[in-house]
Amino acid sequence: MTADLFLFVSENVALSLLAVAVLIVLVRLFRGPTLPDRILSLDMLTTLAISLIGVLTLRLGVDLLLDIALALCLVGFVATVALARYALLRKAGQAVAAESGGNG
């Protein structure tokens, strides 16, 4: 009985802390101020979503949710790499435009 109570309290604490973390990350996502800040916050949001899925898997006892978390890991990794590449290309494009005097 004590183990069940401990697990219940731990799940509630984890869900509460993850919800607060999601709110903080959403503030950073919308306030920015730069593109790398937003990319990092999207990556952190993906990590928090995976954590939430893990806690919900424990709470609900549905193992299928772990497959969803694994798929989200893969998609999150590819999205982060793609956004980082976009940020680098954008920065390189701005540098080329600055070198040419902005006439292009």
Describe this entry's structure for a reader.
The chain is mostly helical and 104 residues long. Helix content is 88%, strand content 0%. The longest helix has 36 residues. The radius of gyration is 19 Å and the shape is elongated.
Characteristics of this structure?
104 residues, elongated, single chain, Helix Hairpins, mainly alpha, 3 helices
- Total number of distinct structural domains: 1
Determine and state the CATH class. Answer: Mainly Alpha
Name the average pLDDT.
Answer: 91
Q: Kindly estimate the percentage of residues that lie in beta strands according to DSSP.
A: under 5%
Shape: elongated
Main sheet record:
none
- CATH structural fold name: Helix Hairpins
Oligomer: single chain
Brief overview:
The protein is mainly α. Helices cover 88% and strands 0% of the residues. It has one domain: Helix Hairpins (Orthogonal Bundle), CATH 1.10.287.
Topology:
Layout (H helix, E strand, L loop, with lengths): L1 H30 L3 H26 L3 H36 L5
Helix pairs in contact: 1-2, 2-3
